[in-house]
Amino acid sequence: ADPQLEGRFTKWNNNAGLQQEGLPGEANEIPPTFSHFSFYESAYKHLLCDLQGVWNRVDGFQFTDPVLLQSREREADKRSSHRSTDKGLKGIVAFFKSHKCTSLCQRLNLEVPPL
Predict the structure, then answer these.
(1) What is the pLDDT of residues 5-45, one digit of tens each?
(2) CA 60, CA 42: separation in Å to the nearest integer?
């Protein structure tokens, strides 16, 4: 059983490019920056998105049911049970079309990938 999450449930982004805010101040920058960072750090192979869950001052972020988008389709991925949630390169392009780099992205020197 999942532990009860303390805080207001928020969906910060999804696997089709939606991005929204739901927290006060700089805390809003963390989920989209985390998604951007995941793509950069994986050498542009994977993007972690569909970030939803809660944030509170004690526990920080608790994300539930994130999705990993893969920039390349491999043979094994075609049989994957996650195929319907992994929108692949199309989902990654949609993320970056709606993503506005945050000041945290800039401090981490995250580049907008050439898609």
Answers:
(1) 888 888 898 888 788 877 767 788 899 999 999 999 999 99
(2) 24
